[in-house]
Write a structure and sequence with these properties.
heterotrimer, A alpha/beta (124), B alpha/beta (287), C alpha+beta (156), B: 287 residues, alpha/beta, Globin-like, 5-stranded mixed sheet, C: alpha+beta, 6-stranded antiparallel sheet
Chain lengths: 124, 287, 156
């Protein structure tokens, strides 16, 4: 796969990470996302990692970067679908993903982003 | 004594096939129950044992069986014992695997050293001592395997006895009772997180009313659970904090700033309800 | 890289390990490209599954392997990873050893502290990976490069 598809749902951009990411793919994703946020005037980014059975510091860094870039562009980011084993490992690894809000499912994530309390999520 | 010992090793390797047949005949006679698959497996194990023991004796003699040269033999006996445990054999039957090699081996020694009574006696004593030790190693390995089975069963029990309750839609409660050791806390953590995924509950109340002591480790485990749940998108409330525990937590310097804590499960439930947008109202017809 | 050891000089592990592979050989994978890292993760996951590790333990070990593999690639200039099933008499486990001929790590204790970074990342590679495994040993020098060995034991 040479790029990760980005779906638009209202003013939210949905990214579903399903493959093993390497440097180029991660950079391409960050590139594409930032461009799309501006182009579609998106106010929210939803990253779905339900298909990931592992998140290491590289991927964690990528997610944090995306959230930071999105925030600069005025969009909030929500991470959804983390598997329990991944969550436990990330806590042990020390990855806190500050600046990234989380939700259990895509539906909840979208609801969170569309909430009129959007400011709270952004400030997280 | 090295000349004598290495002769034993050579003997085993030279006559491996005959020894194997004699040994297996002796084993089958004593233990009995074997099917075709089992007989094949037994033959392979016995053959491997002979090869490894022969090589080990040649390399390092039969006096010290804890040296590196004997490592593979230990390993094989561990594997065989573990298999026997699984198959339901008892420790005596398992040890017989080793002990019943003595007879055919000593028969060969008698043939080899016919006419050299002193050498024969020395060889028999050495062989006897060696196999006694190997027999003990086997029994010890058997015991260890049994312990492993018991440990695994305990773990299974632990998982079964960690109930996570659905208090309300989107609200889970985990009443912890008893001491929390490292193993138990891990199991608890995993159960809770899995239940969060299964039910889609956004809030989990961890009630520690039934936990007698909270030390740094327990506190750390609780905090890790809360952090993991948060990464997944759920929030945790810790309730049931007794006054003494509150004091301990503060004294230990545990940082609970990021966690909502309540003294009672009822308080925690109210908070949870509010967060999910629900509320409890009493009907006015009751007087 | 030998796993059978007791008194061999320069042996990293002080435990008495016995290679449980049937033919005695360990598996060695190259860690030279991003795709190598992907393949390595897949293989490690498969081996852990076949050894019946719990999902959490699998994830921890695969994550640690990923961290170390990326380090080998990014800071070590590429290298190898050898896998071996090991045992110490009462339990079995999986051992991985990452080695490279890179410049080595200048300050090991600093590198093992969380937050340490040279590459602008989160810098959690080594310290974090250490917490995910049961045995963690590291050898590094500017002349010989870096070797990191990790083991995850199965509790039963």
């Amino acid at each position: 796969m040479d790029h990760i598809p980005i779906l638009k749902i209202g003013r939210v951009l949905l990214v579903s990470i399903q493959v093993d990411m390497h440097d180029q793919l991660a950079l391409a994703l960050q590139d594409n996302l930032t461009q799309r946020i501006v182009k579609d005037r998106a106010t929210g980014v939803l990253i779905d990692i339900c298909a990931l059975d592992m998140v290491d510091s590289f991927i964690g860094r990528m997610i944090s970067n995306i959230a930071a870039m999105a925030k600069v562009l005025g969009a909030a980011t929500v991470l959804v679908g983390m598997q329990p084993a991944v969550a436990i490992t990330m806590v042990e690894l020390g990855l806190t993903l500050k600046g990234v809000a989380t939700a259990l499912t895509v539906e909840r994530g979208i609801a969170l982003l569309e909430d009129s309390d959007n400011a709270n999520v952004l400030a997280a | 004594m090295t000349t004598v010992s290495s002769r034993l090793g050579d003997l085993i390797i030279e006559h491996q096939n005959d020894l194997l047949d004699g040994w297996l005949a002796s084993l089958t006679a004593r233990i009995g129950r074997r099917d075709a698959v089992g007989a094949n497996e037994l033959r392979q194990q016995a053959n491997r044992f002979l090869t490894l023991v022969g090589k080990a004796i040649q390399a390092a003699g039969s006096a010290g069986i804890d040296s590196a040269a004997w490592q593979e033999v230990h390993s094989l006996l561990s594997d065989i014992s573990a298999t026997r445990v699984r198959q339901g054999y008892n420790s005596v039957e398992t040890a017989l695997f080793v002990f019943s090699l003595k007879d055919p081996l000593i028969a060969y020694l008698r043939h080899e050293f016919e006419g050299e009574p002193n050498t024969l006696i020395a060889e028999i004593l050495t062989t006897n001592a060696l196999f006694d030790r190997l027999g003990l190693v086997t029994i010890e390995a058997y015991q260890k395997s049994r312990e492993q089975v018991i440990l695994r069963q305990q773990q299974d029990l632990l998982e079964l006895s960690t109930p996570v309750v659905e208090l309300w839609s989107d609200v889970l409660a985990l009443p912890l009772i008893g001491t929390l050791d490292s193993a138990r806390t891990q199991v608890v953590m995993e159960s809770l997180l899995q239940k969060i995924v299964d039910t889609g509950a956004a809030i989990a109340i961890i009630d520690i009313t039934g936990v007698p002591t909270v030390d740094t480790l327990v506190a750390q485990h609780l905090l890790k659970t809360v952090a993991a749940a948060r990464l997944m998108g759920a929030d945790c409330i810790i309730s049931g904090i007794r006054p003494q525990i509150a004091q301990t937590i503060v004294h230990l310097g545990v940082n609970l700033e990021e966690v909502t804590t309540k003294a009672t499960l009822a308080d925690a439930f109210q908070v949870a309800l509010k967060r999910t947008g629900a509320s409890i109202s009493s009907s006015s017809t009751r007087k | 890289m030998s796993w059978q050891l007791n008194a061999s000089p320069g042996a990293l592990f002080s435990l008495d390990l016995v290679n449980l592979q049937a033919d005695g050989a360990e598996v060695v994978l190259p860690v030279r490209t991003d795709d190598d890292v992907v393949k390595l993760r897949k293989l490690v996951r498969e081996v852990l599954i076949s050894m019946r590790f719990s999902i959490v333990d699998q994830t921890k070990m695969v994550t640690a392997a990923s961290e170390l593999a990326r380090n080998t690639l990014r800071y070590g200039g590429g290298g190898d990873c050898s896998l071996a099933k090991v045992g110490d008499g009462s339990r079995t486990g999986l051992a991985l050893a990452f080695s490279d001929n890179g410049p080595g790590i200048a300050d090991v204790s600093l590198a093992l502290t969380d937050g340490y970074t040279t590459g602008g990342g989160m810098g959690l590679g080594l310290g974090g990976a250490k917490r995910l495994v049961d045995v963690f040993e590291l050898q590094t020098s500017p002349d010989t490069g870096t070797t990191v060995k990790i083991i995850k034991w199965k509790p039963y």
